Each structure stands twice: as C-alpha cells, then as structure tokens.
Amino acid sequence: MADNNPYPGENNTGHIWDDNIRELDNPVPGWWMIAFWASIIFFFGYGVLYPMYPIGQKPTQGVLGWTQIKEYQEGLDEVMAVRAEFENQLKEMTAQEILANPGLADYTEASVRVLFGDNCAPCHGGGGQGGPGYPVLADDDWLFGGTVETIQQTITMGRKGIMTAHGKILSDAEADKLVDAIVAGDPQSDPNFLQKGCIACHGMDGKGMQMLGSANLTDGIYRFVPGEGQSIKDSVKQTILHGVNDVTDPQTREAVMPSFGDRLSKDEIKKLAVFVYKFGGGQ
Amino acid sequence: MSAEQKSPQQSAIDELYDEAEHWNLNTGEETIHAKRMGGTWRKIKWLSASVWILLFIVPYLRIGDRQAILFDIPNRQFHILNMTILPQDFWMLSLLLLFFALLLAVSTALVGRVYCGYFCFQTVWTDVFTWLDEKLEGTPPKRRKLDKAKLDFTKFRIKFTKHFIWLLISVLTGISFVAWFYDAYDLWSDIFSLQAGSTAYGTIALFTAGTYVLAGYMREQACFWLCPYARIQGVMVDNTTLVPTYDFKRGEPRGRIVKGQSEDERTTGDCVDCKQCIAVCPTGVDIRHGQQEGCITCGLCIDACDLVMEKIDRPKGLIRYESLDVLEGGENRPLFKRPRVWVYGLIMSVALAGIGYGLSTLDALELKVIHARQPLFVLLSTGSIQNKYTLKVLNKMTKDVPVTITATGPEGLILVDADGIIAKHGKVTPRTVFLRVPKSNLKGENTPIIFQVEGEMSGEVFMGTRMSVFIGPKY
User: Fold this and answer.
1) Nearest residue, CB atoms, A280 vs list B373, B382, B386
2) Is the per-residue pLDDT at B1 higher than 50?
3) Which residue in A53, A260, B331, B441 could disulfide with A60, CB within 3.0 to 4.6 Å?
4) Residue A122: CATH number of its domain
5) Contact list, A280 vs chain B (CB under 8 Å)
6) With 70 as the cut, is the pLDDT of residue B28 above it?
C-alpha cells in the first residue's frame, strides 16, 4: 500500500500494485443492484409459497401446499383419465372379447407393453422370442395350450413341468436310439417309446398332452434349446436321462414359471394374455 | 446568356445541374426520395414485379370443391393442383430448397443481384409504395418540401390518404399470404365474422406491420442492414458477372459541360457529373464508385444515364450491364471455363430430377413394411417358418378405402391376418400380419418378399408395392 496516493481524486481505495493497478471504489451498477434485491425478495417469496425452512420435524410447508409427489400424481391422473375410457370397457370384457375388437386389442397391446417388459421380458424376451432355457411365446407350440384363456391361467397360476429322469431305466445305447427317433420326428418308430412308458405322458403318437403340459415330440420344436457346444441330439438326450424338475437327479432340467396371480391384478393379467396371444402363436 | 437564347439542349443541361445539388449519397439519415423516370429497365422492372400479382390471385383459383393450391397445415397436407402431398413426401421439399438456393447462386454468378433488383418483395413493395409517394405527393423536391412543411389541412389530407393506401396494401398482403394456408373464401368470411382464429389474425397482423414498416419506412435500409442475402450474394459475384457498371475509362475525368466549348476542345470524359444516376437510385448509391453493397443491380441508373447521353448527343451506355473483365479490356471467359456456373447447374438438375421422380411416383396408396426384429422368425409346429410384419397403409385419397394385401415370395407362402383392412383417408393405417413359408421351401436365410396393396375408389384401381424380406434359420 502506498502512503502517498499517486492517483488522487479518482476514489481509489489506496490499494495499488505494480505502480499502476488500483482498486477503485465504484458503486455497483444499478441493474446489478435491482437483480440483487429482486433475488432477495424472490428468496422470501419462495419460502412463503413453497416448502423450505427446516424448522422442527418437518420443514415449513408453504401456503400453496405444493409437493413433488402431488405434482407426480397429477401427471399420472392426467394419463389415467385418458386411459379410463378404454380401461372401463376392458373391465367388463373377457380376453376373447378384447381380441375380437380390433381397436381395443390395439389399445391393449400398446398399453400393456411396459408391464410385459417389467414382468415377462427378462425370461421370454421383449418380442416373446424366448431365451436359453425359457420358452418362445411367439410360436404356436404350446406346452399347456395356446388359447387366450389358457395363457391367462398360465400367467395367474404359474407352471411347473414334470418329467422323471430316465437315466436309470435306459442304457446309453437305448437312449441314443430313442433320441434318433425323436429328432427324426417319429418317436413311435422306436419300441422303447412304448415300452419305457413315454406314451403315458407324450401320448401314443408322441404329440404331447396339453392337460399335462407334456411336449410335442414330433414337430421339431424343443422346449430346451441346445446349450453351449451341444447338438440338438445331446440336448434331447440330456432331457431324457435327467428329466425335468426331478428332485432325485441333480442334473435335471429346471422349468418353473412363477405365479403372477399375487403380483398383478386380474385386469393386468387379462391384458398380458391378449398381448402374448398377439405375438402370433395364439390359438 | 438570356433564356431566349438557350438551345433546347443547353436548357435541358442547365435543368440537370440545377437539381444536381439535391442528389446526395445515402448515409441513412435522410429518407431517400428517388426520382422516377421511364426507360427500358424501368419497363422490365414492372414486368418482373408483376409476378407478385400471383400472390394475390392464386388462392382464389379452385379445382373441384377445393382450393387449387392450399398448404393445409392443420391437416398436414399440401394440395398443389391435382396432387396431394403428405408429410411422407416432404423429402422433396429439401430438394426444392436446394434448387432455389442454387438458382440464387447461379443467377448471381451470371447476372449479379438480379433477384434483389427485379423480384425481391422488399424491392417490389417499396417500388409500389414510392410510386404512390410520387402520385400523391409529387416529385422528390415537392416531397422534401412537404416533409419539412408544417402540418396543415392539405398536408394532413395528403399524408392520411397515403398512409391509408399503404395500410390497405399491407393488410391485403397479409390476408393474401394467409389465404395460401386457409381456404381463401372462408378466410374472408371468417375474418369479418371474427372466427378466423388467433394464428390467422396474428399472421395477418405480422404481415401488415411488416409490409407497412419495411416498405413504407425501412426501404433500402432493410437491404443495407437487415437482409442476409444482400451480403451472401455480394460475395457470389466475380469478374465475369454482368452487373450495372460505370465505364470509368470513358467517363473519367468527369466534368461539367463548359458553356460554349465545342466537343473537340473537351478535355473531360463523357460523364457530365449531372448526378442523375444517384437521383434515380432507390438505395441512393453512386454507381460511379463501382459495385458496392448498396447496389441492388436494378438498372435504373442505366436508364437515367442513357437519357442524359441522348440529350447531349454522346453515345449511350456510359453505365451499362458489363463484367469487370470486359471493362478492363479483357474478354469474357466462355461458359465452359466457368465451373461454378455449370457445377451449380448440374446440382440444380439433379435436384429437379429428384423432384420429378418424386412427383411422378406419388401414389394414391402407399405401403410401408416393417419387419419385426424380435424374434426375426419362429418355427411353427407345422414345420413352417413364421415372420411378423407391421404394414402401414397410407391412403392419400379423399375417402376410406377397403384394401386387399397380397404377398408374393417362395412357394407355399401364406399371408395371415391381412383381411378386412380399411385404409383411412389422409392417414396411415397400421396392421400386424404374419407370413408363413414351409421351411423346406426356403433357399437361404433371407428371401425377398413383395407386398402389394390394392384398393378401389370410384371405379379406379390404385396399387402400391413394397419390397421386404423373409428371414429363416441358418441351418
């Protein structure tokens, strides 16, 4: 700081550096002061109108009574109001009736897509294309039936496949022969199909029984797709030898679909059934 | 020398010099009152300006029960004569814009700012407004006097009439513009029954204010300070471009005619410094300084100079359309040595060809096919492969039409769920369909498929086709 101010009469504060850099004591510009006071007024005004001061257990609530969750709810209500017209109609209708009405079926498909994505797509894929170990929903090969009512029932109750392991009653060579017959699409050609009791569940013709959820063995569509490095024959043989959900066999196939009856409402399940049906395999 | 002794030629020259002091360069501080005189370019200017009459009359032409040209924005369709253009065809607009952008470029390369001088709405409307000035208030000196005069009844009457007519033209301009987007006959009745809607009133108000202010007050200032094209075009001019040019070799050194001096004794150039070229210039520039930002190349100075040259028996064309190359004694480069011109031309013809192709293939029924991606295909229990498609049928006709969809592809192809589609008019109707092909009939992973849509309206059959693909397993 210089003792003798070399720049008198220019209202500097006396802080001078490098001989000529001075700190001046100029007033703040008018526009800046206006903005400054306006911000202070805004601050208090905001505190009156909106939740703000953390006093006590809860902050002050503001005279407008605004909350974030209320604003969210209002937005949601707006969407729901638009949907209500359709949703009210759907309530009264069966899944079959919805399918018969093109406009409502389109609405159902569009509105339930998110629900399918949340609940079904992790296993069955976004387009019902299935996944390793999980069935395809877009084809017409249904273990438990492909009518929209059955699909509805499947979603509500869940499904669990059962097949005992046959490793103990079939030699390796016998199993290979049986696999060959099945992959050729003609399981009956192997006498073991009858003798080892396959027909009990898969039927005389090997086309499966939807009451039991047993697979059609003649159409070349397999519930369990071959794993890494496996051929179709390896995969079929694994299923025959170790069964499905057979607790006595540690190498058994797992095939459980959980029940959604507790998680989703009846209407939601009805809409999902329509959605799944429209993948292209509904019957 | 007394007035009686003057030759007619001499008195005409004296008149020119008498008024020469009025003509000053435009510095933006004073209203320019340009002198109006006839001539070749003046006539051409009126002719080119008359193109804008279309703005006022075309909206009233009709084809059948609708406007011949209507840009119907609320319904997302443009009607141009017999064609209906939907948002799906809008790629053509980009080609149209490309065409006009290059038209501006190529015309500027050839003949300078010809758009500014002869066609631009700013120039044309200003020209009409100043024509009214002349008719109502008289010649430029009178106008200047009137501007300075105190407001009395006569001044008020003249000014009121002028501004009233200006406003009338402005309002008519606004309404005519809106009429391209709004049924013109309905527009008039809606305007007066107060039912035209805020967009229509707002646009009319905007155009009224714009016309009144830009053509009435801003005038050449808009060209100087507002218009980007004025600047862009300025840099597109080159040495070979034909622009109004003052022949300085012939004109300089300029000098006033000395009384009694014979032509042989003259030491000055052809320019007699009468400033008539500045007098007539609507932007108030002095062309003798060469090409400059203010010159809109309207050619009015050529008319003025020719008239003077005629009076004093010197050859015409002291100011004329000429390129800088020729003026400096060179020759004009032939067109094939000006790649700018023909490259622009080439791109323009490509754009035109694209628009021509687009317009000739505008179908009344259009089909779009989207193949489902998840899953690409599924195997059915019958041994067939199934693919899922979303069809989008666009119907550009005026009525809903039941359509039949067919698909051709490999043997044994079955189309499912494609029955009973009714294509809604002016809209896209979506439908999910399935194709099934026996696996044994598929030759490879991808098989081409052709979808066709067919509909009938008033006895005429309309068709649309679309290629797609059928996807099967790899093995």
Assistant:
1) B386
2) no
3) A53
4) 1.10.760.10
5) 378, 386, 388, 434
6) no
Contact yes or no for B389/B369 (Cβ under 8 A): yes
* Confidence class for position B8, pLDDT limits 50, 70, 90: low
Average pLDDT over chain A, rounded to an integer: 91
**Each residue's pLDDT tens digit, B222-258:** 988 889 888 888 888 888 999 999 999 998 888 888 8
Asked whether the beta carbons of residue A129 and residue B434 sit closer than 8 angstroms, the reply is: no
Angle between helices B91-111 and B339-360 (to 10 degrees): 150
In a domain, A71, yes or no: no
Confidence grade of residue B84 (pLDDT, cut at 50, 70, 90): confident
- Say yes or no to pLDDT of B81 above 60: yes
Q: Which domain holds residue B55?
A: 3-90+118-231
The Cα–Cα gap between B418 and B420 comes to 7
Question: Which residues of B have a CB under 8 Å from any CB of A?
Answer: 372-375, 378-383, 386, 388, 432, 434
* Coil/strand/helix, residue B352: helix
Residue ranges of the alpha helices (H) in B58-120? 91-111, 114-118
Q: DSSP H helical segments within B138-266, as ranges?
A: 140-148, 153-179, 184-192, 197-213, 220-221, 228-234, 248-251
C-alpha B55 chain-centroid distance: 11
The pLDDT assigned to A1 comes to 47
**C-beta separation of A76 from A69 below 8 A:** no
Tell me how far the alpha carbon of residue B327 is from its chain's centroid: 32
Alpha carbon of B388: minimum distance to chain A alpha carbons (Å): 8
- Across the range B137-164, mean pLDDT stands at 92
Separation between Cα atoms, residue A173 and residue B381, nearest integer Å? 28
**How would residue B3 be classed by pLDDT, with cut points 50, 70 and 90?**
very low
Number of domains forming the structure of chain A: 3
pLDDT confidence tier of residue B9, bands split at 50, 70 and 90:
low
- Residue A194 sits in which domain range? 162-254
Q: How many CA atoms lie within 13 A of A16 on its CB side?
A: 14
Instruction: Answer with the one of B231, B264, B297 that is the final residue of a domain.
Output: B231
Is ipTM over 0.90?
A: no
B25/B34 Cα distance (integer angstroms): 11
Strand ranges for B32-73 from DSSP E? 62-63, 66-67, 69-72
Residue of B377, B380, B474 best to disrupt the A interface, most CBs of A under 10 A: B380
**Stretch (H or E) spanning B14:** helix B8-20
Cβ neighbours for B343, distance < 8 A, ≥ 6 positions apart: none
The answer on pLDDT for B321 being more than 90 is yes
| Number of domains observed in the structure of chain B | 2
The CA–CA distances, whole Å, from A107 to A89, A251, B57, B94, B148 equal 11, 44, 47, 36, 74
Q: What is the pLDDT of residues B389-412, one digit of tens each?
A: 999 998 887 788 999 999 999 999
- pLDDT over 60 at B112, yes or no: yes
Q: The tokens of B242 are what?
A: 């034909």
Residues in contact with A52: Cβ distance below 8 Å, sequence separation at least 6, in sequence order:
A46, A59, A60, A62
* Cβ-based neighbour number of residue B214 at 10 Å: 19
Q: Helix, strand or coil for residue B24?
A: coil
